[in-house]
Structure prediction request, 71 residues.
Amino acid sequence: MKQSKFSETQIVNILKEAEAGIPVEELSRKNGFSKSAFYKWKAKYSGMDTSALKRLKALGEDAIGKGGLVK
Prediction:
């Protein structure tokens, strides 16, 4: 799987800018991503803020530290 050139925090900040009213076309030109990437990010991260993202990362790291994710 290809690694994103944007961190999850950057993605959440871009989504917040879009919610504030900046057009997707302008954001994609300014930051260098495609519109399809934006809509994939929106589906995955919509409604998250940076604190929720940090909690999600901490839960994932905790699960990995305990021997992996439970199936």
